[in-house]
Design goal:
By secondary structure, the chain is α+β, with helices and mostly antiparallel strands. Helix content is 29%, strand content 21%. The chain folds into two domains: 121 residues, N-terminal domain of MutM-like DNA repair proteins, CATH 3.20.190; 130 residues, Orthogonal Bundle (Helicase, Ruva Protein, domain 3), CATH 1.10.8.50. Strands 1-6-7-5 form a four-stranded antiparallel beta sheet. A four-stranded antiparallel beta sheet has the order 2-3-4-8, covered by helices on one side. Strands 9-10 form a two-stranded antiparallel sheet. The longest helix has 21 residues. The two termini are 32 Å apart.
Length: 276
């Protein structure tokens, strides 16, 4: 599933091709949305905004298309009138005089009024977005210190969009590794320093991933691994997806656990419980 950095990059691309232009043609795959093809046609796209792992395409007149990629959704872009070569199912198409933005394979698409947005089941529960410019270290640290979350297991909490939005499976693993937090720990069991480190990493790694196209490893380590001839898949993350490989910090073999059906990668030495 795309995480915050991927959604923000998609939103930036959507904004680049759609914002400030009128839609000349619109297509919805779902029958319950067909009526909006005529309603939204020839309306201007005002802004495109990421919200957690969802995107709002906002039109003049107070209507908004809410889309959530979930596991398989993917935005593709083409010159006006063209279609990408893909076997995916087209769910939404927005076309103007120059470009087409096409959403494939997504199952969550709605049209909402401005008044409906604050009460939307997903949107109203979102915690601070780690990629939003207004979200700073103090805001995120407050979440890690909030008593409401202290009895939650960290590995589960970091996937909860009502805690912090924008984090997902690979960022969870990288944040916990960077802060030295073992997968079994509850937030209450973490030290003050670990909470501070997780707060810093939650923002820093998400924004690094956004800026680099998905890399969470620090630049110095990346350059060293490149000199060794490592591929992008090998230097992209500290621990995520690296089961059986050696930790870049201590040389211990990376392990993997399953929590809630999702794989969680970690270093048993750098994230040892024995120090806690």
């Amino acid at each position: 599933m795309p995480e915050g950095p991927e959604i923000w990059r998609e939103a930036d691309r959507l904004s680049e091709v759609l914002a400030g232009r009128k839609v000349s043609e619109i297509y919805f795959a779902f029958d319950e949305l067909k009526e909006y093809e005529e309603i939204l046609n020839n309306r201007e796209v005002k802004t495109v905004e990421p919200r957690g792992k969802a995107i709002l395409t906002r039109f003049d007149g107070g209507l908004n298309i809410y889309s959530h990629n979930q596991l398989y959704g993917k935005w593709k872009f083409a010159e006006n009138g063209e279609r990408p070569d893909t076997n995916r199912s087209l769910r939404l198409a927005l076309t103007n005089g120059e470009h087409s933005a096409l959403l494939y394979s997504a199952s969550e698409i709605e049209v909402l009024t401005d008044e409906q947005l604050p009460e939307h089941d997903y949107l109203k529960k979102l915690g601070p977005d780690v990629l939003h410019p207004d979200t700073d270290y103090e805001i995120v640290l407050d979440r890690y210190q909030d008593e409401d979350f202290q009895n939650r297991k960290v590995a589960t909490l970091l996937l909860d969009q009502s805690f912090l939005s924008g984090l997902g499976n690979y960022l969870r693993a990288e944040v916990m590794f960077t802060a030295g937090v073992h997968p079994d720990l509850k937030l209450r069991q973490c030290t003050i320093e670990q909470k501070e480190n997780m707060a810093e990493a939650s923002i820093g790694l998400a924004r690094r991933s956004f800026e680099t196209g998905g890399i969470t490893t620090d630049p110095k380590t990346v350059e060293a691994l490149k000199r060794e001839g490592k591929s992008r898949s090998q230097y992209r993350h500290f621990v995520y997806g690296r089961e059986g490989d050696f930790c870049y910090k201590c040389g211990t073999e990376i392990q993997v656990d399953k929590t809630g059906g999702r794989k969680l990668y970690y270093c048993p030495e750098c994230q040892s419980k024995s120090d806690k």
